[in-house]
Amino acid sequence: AKQAGGGTFRRYHAGMTARGAERNELAAALRTAIVEEQLVLHYQPVVTLPEGRITGVEALVRWQHPERGLLGPGAFVAAAEQTGVIVGMGRWVLRTAVRQMAAWIAEYGVAAPATVSVNASPRQLQESSFADDVAAALRDHDVPAQRLTVEVTESTAVGGGATQDNLRALRAMGVRLSLDDFGTGASTLSLLADLQVDQIKLDRSFVPVPGPDAIAAAVVQLAAAFGIEAVAEGVEEARQAARLTEMGYRRAQGYHFARPMPATEVSARLSAPPVT
Ligand code: C2E
Ligand code: CA
Ligand code: CA
Ligand code: CA
């Protein structure tokens, strides 16, 4: 039994090492990718209900891998987070999104998206320089803080390190905060009260039709009670948009309206008629 245990341990250990090595390789490749500009941002419109007008865009990272083609964040963000490469990657995402926002403001004026949202992971928020990096990016591109939204999940928001200082500093400079994947984490109402976010994003697993209405309806009422914006994510069908509108949602995001797309395609839509 002892020997079997040892064998099990060795196999388990070897497996961990293989996975660890793979992760480190990915992280090294990702570091190169940042320098060689293989990362790209796609932007997914957030639209108004019921008009379907673009009111914001969420920046979503992709990796144009030289051998493997265009990779989604599912293929590399977790490894980036575990190895710390996410800090450099996140800085690139932030600066690129803010620079793009400056370009939209310059070119489209009042028709530019009101805000660009970037996703921030736990490791990024724990970094003591995060809020300063945000401030520097905004200053360098002359973008008002109100036009940037930082999306965090509930577990990110309760993180340690410099997380709480960063959240405070972001709020103080006027950057908008959004609570992502709302309802899937360890949500508590006191967290919602403490965080003072500007927006909550209903996780797509709670979007009604054919799913039940209860959580989606409760979340939009919760947002109203807190005086903040509710966004429904993952809206794929017209009847879902209609149902959410009935419930009181005024913001939505999902394939029904627009998929994540290169900045140039967003630009084309800023002058095109809305989708409803
Ligand atoms: P998320 O922040 O919840 O982003 C929404 C995800 O849902 C995106 O996947 C988007 O393409 C997808 N989506 C949008 N509309 C629909 C829809 O109607 N139906 C369905 N089924 N899916 C929809 P994506 O781009 O693969 O990103 C996955 C996750 O990766 C993001 O989830 C976010 O957590 C993370 N991520 C993306 N970009 C970044 C980044 O720059 N930094 C960090 N730290 N994480 C990122
Ligand atoms: Ca998000
Ligand atoms: Ca605010
Ligand atoms: Ca989400």
Automatic annotation (TrEMBL):
Residue ranges annotated for the EAL domain, each copy included: 23-274
UniProt-recorded name of the protein: PAS domain S-box-containing protein/diguanylate cyclase (GGDEF) domain-containing protein
